[in-house]
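Notebook, p. 212. Picked up where the previous page left off. The plan for this session was modest: take the two constructs that came back from the sequencing core last week, fold each one, and keep the raw output in the notebook itself so nobody has to go hunting through shared drives later. Recording the first one now, exactly as returned: residue sequence, then the structure token string.
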Amino acid sequence: MSQHKDHPLAAQRQLADLIGKDRFAMLTEPGTGELLESRPMTLLEFDAQGLLWFFCRRQADARPHPVNLAFSDEVHSTFVSIAGRAEQVDDRERIHALWTAAARPWFPDGPDSPDLALLKIVPLKVEYWDAPDSRVVRGLALAASILSGSPVGLGEHGVLSSVRSEPAPR
């Protein structure tokens, strides 16, 4: 496992490359009781400060809380887990800027839907697993590992730190 203590911009670029064009993630957060609950979310923006933005339903209890985002690209065997903090944001200007017609089934009144808010994810720890070889190569390596009884390298596992940059002074 490698741990990167890169400059935030380098870590942001690597995270953007790992997520790629995959805009779908599973969001896991505290549910009722001791249970965790997950739901699919569509990433709207990964901004210059390293924050991830999603549309969400406005919650009465909008306190920041811990979350985990899981991105999976099975075609390229890239998996990303982002542990962080979620904060509900009511910013109509940003909602309008990020609005897409694909959100209309969940928010039929469009960007002015009264129950529409933004969910800002502040990443605190990013872990990734990346196996760049083809599926066939990975399958053969796995079979060789099973037959030989020894571990075989199936890709890179790492931790990105310092993904967030401080906003530029105004």
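Okay, moving on. Second construct, recorded in the same format:
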Amino acid sequence: MTSLIGRTRERGVETLSLDATGTRNALSAPLVAELAGALTDCARDPDVRAVVLTHTGGTFCAGADLRDPPAPDAFVALLRRLVELPKPVVARVTGHVRAGGLGLLAACDITAASTASTFAFTEVRIGVAPAVISLPLLPRTDPRALSRYYLTGERFAAPEAARIGLLTATADDVDAVLAPVLDGLRKAAPQGLAETKRLLTVRVLEAFERDAADLTALSARLFASPQAREGMTAFLERREPAWVL
């Protein structure tokens, strides 16, 4: 079976690349399972100081794979694994991010994107809601901005993503921005990184403990609904869904 996650290592930094360009790195059940396994390997490996999550192709992640989606609880487990990993996770984005891909970004500790990247919460346009991705998003981003972008599904640019707290930084050359970040992580003690990350993720993990079960159930219910079936069919057929005025 072809791997969906590329893996390289340089001076203690493990780079995991979403590598399903045929589906624009959509979150399929196999991709979610393979990424979760790779993160588990990184957690157990004492030679891994930090993880970079990046992508091949022009899209970081197109959201859920509508033909082969992961179970909602499997995706929640992946998001939680990113948050709980005892090593910093740095997102490197040089392309577009949609829907569930924004949940991946929110679950990372440091996020940087090129100025050419674009973002959108497209769930409402297919009849569902950004349910489980709200677990890491709501504690970390501007709630008024989320109200706009959740409800409209409109696209926004990298500077706006940085303003609302989705990104740590944006620049034309994202690697130049991340070079001092990775150097800093390499200089930090593993224990110091793990315990500092634990301090920083308290509120996010509280959201998982409080809301994960309810949001997982909501996601499953919405994806099984008649409106979602119409929305997903319209998306796959490249037409407007029936409710568009």
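Notes on construct two before I forget. The CA atoms of residues 115 and 172 lie 5 Å apart.
Flagging for discussion at group meeting.
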